[in-house]
Amino acid sequence: MLTSKQRAYLTGLSNSLNPIVQVGMQGVTPEVVKSAEEAFNTHELIKGTVQKNVPEDVRACAETIAERSRSELVTVIGRKFILYKPFREKPVIVLPVKK
Prior knowledge:
By secondary structure, this protein is α+β, with helices and mostly antiparallel strands. It contains three helices and four strands, in the order αβαβαββ.
C-alpha cells in the first residue's frame, strides 16, 4: 500500500512518460493485461489510457488491470492511469520512506 507522499512522488515521475497500455472498445481484455505485464518486465512505472468509447469507468478499468497484473494503482487522472510494480531483485525507483 502506497502512502500519499509516495503516490505524489510517483505521479511526478510519470509526467514525462508516454502511455504504454491502451484500453480499447472491448474493455479490459487478457491482451491488455498481458501488455501491462510485459511492460512491467522492463519498467516499474507505466502509464495507460482508456479510450472514450469504453463502456466501463476509467477507475474500474485501471483497478482491474492493477489487480490482474499484481501491481499498484497510483492514480487516475482524466482518462489516464498510472501503475507501479517494483522490480523484485533491485528496485530502480526509491520511494520516500514510510513513517
